[in-house]
Amino acid sequence: MEAGIGSLTRLGESAIDVTLVVVEPTPRSIDVARRGLHVADERGQGRVVIVANKISDDADRQRIIGAFGDRPTVFVPEDPAIDAADRRGTSPSDDAPDAPGVQAIEHIIDGLGLPDAVRG
Amino acid sequence: MTGSRRLRVAFVGKGGSGKSTISGSFARLLARRGEPVLALDSDPLPGMPYALGVAIDDGPIPDDVVVEGPEGGPRWVLDPRCDADAVIEQYAATGPDGVKYLQFGNLWGHASTLQRAQHAWSQVVREVDPDRWHLVGDLPGGTRQAMFGWARYADTVCVVVEPTAKSLHAAARLLNLSTATWAPHHLVIVANKVTDPAEIEAIGARLGRPVASGLPLDAALADGDRLGTAPLDVAPNGAFAHGVEALIDHVESLDYPRDMREPS
């Protein structure tokens, strides 16, 4: 979706099965994610999973845990391979399928428990 | 800057390109030159306070100074007993270096909850005394607000672009602002998070315009971001700060129509 929470507020209630709230370990990003969580909960937008992105160390993990407590959370490490793909304008999953960041994103799909027919 | 017109600058670009970081630092460094600066934030999820170092969360113009507008006019207007100067005086936060910061609002749910504050903010921006304040604005990421004319208060719009394909794509679209009826006098390309001078050349070639300013990728700023510390407080004498100083000089040096440059 578009950055921010505007698109989420315009969805019909219970329009989606799972909301992935992507957050960086910065106060600004955490603030926006809290707002996204609030809207997703209020409007019944399915299961909500926190995707903590660009996590570089334990302090980053603790910032996220401190903000979101026991919410289901997937941690995606800060990964130069993803930045490099971004600068080249290529997909990280094509460029660096074995990079830790890409692998962590793959695990998000595993964690959602989607049936194989949906996962493709 | 004595004798010259106040600056009216807005920053646009793709989300994450660094608009808030640069605009907030631009406002502070301009204020350090002894100039009166009003920072205008029209992002409903504002990032500018972090870059300014302003301790504010939700700070919209309160609903109780907004009344229904006249028939055929805006839906909401400022209470006639409260003008732009009074709103700035009472509701703009004062940040480091004396920057005044006026927020559009901070969204928790549907945008309609901010409707009154949004109209009031727009009225203040329309009616603010152009001889009193330098205006430094930050728009939300993307093209929507920019294309709907939310930066029309600015005569210089800085398009912030990272050396990535996504950011370049957004910047190319934003350059279409030059064809709008409210087109700014100057569209300035600001390359951000640059790791190699060749990236600046590549951005200029891709966008077909010279890059006015290249700001470096600075790990210290990222660390500050994690701690919620403003860039100028985490690296006050770093290459980023010097780059923003140079950007201010550049914007000041631009030619404006004669009537706009004359002192009040």
Extract low-pLDDT stretches of chain B: none
Strands across the major sheet of chain A, in which order? 1-2-3
Estimated share of beta-strand residues of chain B: 15-25%
Computed Rg of chain B: 18 Å
Mean pLDDT of chain A: 89
Instruction: Kindly provide the name of the CATH class of chain B.
Output: Alpha Beta
How many distinct domains of chain A? 1
What do we call the CATH topology of chain B? Answer: Rossmann fold
* Helix-and-strand structural type of chain B: alpha/beta
Shape of chain A: globular
| Low-confidence residue ranges of chain A | none
Number of strands of chain B: 10
Major sheet attributes of chain A: 3 strands, parallel
Kindly report the name of the CATH homologous superfamily of chain B.
P-loop containing nucleotide triphosphate hydrolases
What can you tell me about this protein's structure?
The complex is a heterodimer of chains A (120) and B (264). Chain A has helices at 6-10, 27-42, 58-68, 80-88, 92-95, 100-112, 116-119; strands at residues 18-23, 47-55, 73-77. Chain A is an alpha/beta fold and 120 residues long. Chain A has a single domain, classed as 3-Layer(aba) Sandwich (Rossmann fold). By secondary structure, chain B is of the alpha/beta class. Chain B has a single domain (8-254), classed as Rossmann fold. Chain B is built from 11 helices and 10 strands. In chain B, the strands form 2 sheets. Chain B has an 8-stranded mixed β-sheet, sandwiched between helices. In chain B, strands 3-4 form a two-stranded antiparallel ribbon. In chain B, helix 1 (19-32) crosses helix 10 and helix 3 (84-91) crosses helix 4. The longest helix of chain B has 15 residues, at 239-253. The model of chain B has no long low-confidence stretch (mean pLDDT 92). Chain A binds chain B through residues 2-6, 9-10, 25-28, 31-32, 35, 38-39, 42, 59-60, 63, 86-89, and chain B through 15-16, 44-45, 47, 50, 57, 107-111, 140-142, 163-166, 199, 225-228.
